[in-house]
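Entry 14. Ran structure prediction on the chain below.
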Amino acid sequence: NMTLNFIAGFSTVDVCVLPFTPIYDIQGSGAATPLSGTVTTMGVVVGDYEGASPTLRGFYLQDATGDANASTSDGIFVFNGSNNYANLGDVVRVTGSVSEFQGQTQINASSVVNCGAGSVSPTDITCPVPDATYLEQYEGMLVRLPQTLYVTEHFQLGRFGQVVMSSGGRLQQPTNIVAPGTPSIAMQIANNLNRIIIDDAL
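Output, structure tokens:
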């Protein structure tokens, strides 16, 4: 993908230096994007899952600097069909339609232009999280879990390639250790904030 586009048949412009909408503005501060229609953005590829199904058929793009706002994510998923245009560490400029898909903001790419190479440092997150919407601010971003985690469930490992991890040991069924009713409900709420699914992306 070249970064030079012909204008009026005789002059060129480097599209990689043209303005774009930052990823965090596309994500917005709510559960869904505040934008609609076609957008153009730019960032570093932090997760490459391109190719034919059963891959995710796209890649994760993260703003190179971010906006330091805890209410807006700096990452986004770019759906790319069965194409394979990006690699980890590429800086790419993406144009496409923005929408929500299965609770995730994504761009359905119509254009992907390689603009060089870059890097993004992972953001540390830890379990348990404070509330059920806390992880929304990290949607699509490169993260790191700098703590010991334990396999708390592996029922879906063989079929879907995923395990559930938790901190502080394996999570127990609440009624195994506390009384039914209010105590077990409170423990289940706490358990829900202390589990994360690790998936092989297939």
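The first helix runs from residue 23 to 27. Will compare against last week's run tomorrow.
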